[in-house]
Amino acid sequence: MADAAVDAGHGVLVAADKFKGSLTAVEVAEHVTAGLRRVVPEVRVEALPVADGGDGTVDAAVAAGFERREVRVAGPLGEQVTAAFALRGSTAVVEMAQASGLRRLPAGVLAPLTASTYGSGELLRAALDAGATTIVFGVGGSATTDGGAGMLAALGARFLTADGTPVPPGGGGLGGLAHADLSGLDARLDSVELILAGDVDNPLTGPKGAPAVYGPQKGASPDDVGRLDTALTHYVTVLEEAVGPRAARYAVSPGAGAAGGIGYGALLLGARFRAGIEIMLEVLGFASALQRCSLVITGEGSLDEQTLHGKAPAGVAAAARAAGRDVVAVCGRLALTPQALRGAGIRRAYALTEEEPDVARCIAEAGPILERVAERIARDFLRPEAS
């Protein structure tokens, strides 16, 4: 046995994120559970799929008991799409990628200059209509770089050109912005706790801003990046005239550059920025689930340097370690040293590529391979419950 085992009866908590392109977080938990039980049938397993604010955040909330609500909103190019948010009591979890994510673009189409966050604003409005007084706004996986202008417009703001017509959608159109009016914003926003949940702390513009760092992922050429950065800088200047110095202050605040600058728009709405995985663990009830287990299994598609900077497995491991629980991780690909894993609170990581070196097969057959990985975890870390 490779590691000190824990009693199967003490419980295992599977709190992993998705394997992007292969398995949802819910599917990861299902396959890990199946593999564990193949070796130790009596093991008590609790699944708590997690997310850090990006793709899969609503699904994680629904798996934890939230109600899924669907609404028709504008996609990033203006077409109508069906998007979802999650609701439990007066708390809503809204995922901007549901409306304005890259996955909402037609196959092979990228629109770095014209993609809009208008639908994300419509999702927030739907959450308000449903009676939410606390909104966790998960940002990530966006197709957009419009500084949240589309979102603000959907909530009642007006962005006009010199001739009084609305600016075109997308970040590129903000270069022609002459006048911003936020006085028409939905009044309900004043009495709502809005939490900006993200995993990046970039400012809005500059060398580490949204266009420079994330624009290329959305199809922006070097010229597009320059145009977007100039347009967003101008956007901030016009907003200063409308709302005062806080517009410039928010532009350099952590999280402003999240999801193409929608973080900046959320800060203008009064949002409080928090690490996505931290707030999601609170919302999902992670602390109470920890009390019912001795071993935590976390993970995501690739465990690498990015994992250590606010991604779900690092947040899960930190919280579990603080509670004195053992943590192991599963992943498709492992690019962290044992020392880095231990520093993050992860005793050991198990990669699908250890079972199947062919990466294409790992992606295509991720579920069955993950079950074999979970069997190894059971043999290494679990012992049958004492009778």
Automatic annotation (TrEMBL):
Keyword Transferase: yes
Keywords: Kinase, Transferase
InterPro entries noted in UniProt: Glyc_kinase_flavodox-like_fold (IPR018193), Glycerate_kinase (IPR004381), Glycerate_kinase_RE-like (IPR018197), Glycerate_kinase_sf (IPR036129)
Highest taxon above the source species: Bacteria
GO MF: kinase activity
Protein family (similarity comment): Belongs to the glycerate kinase type-1 family.
Protein name: Glycerate kinase
Organism annotation: Streptomyces thermoviolaceus subsp. thermoviolaceus
Organism taxonomic ancestry: Bacteria, Bacillati, Actinomycetota, Actinomycetes, Kitasatosporales
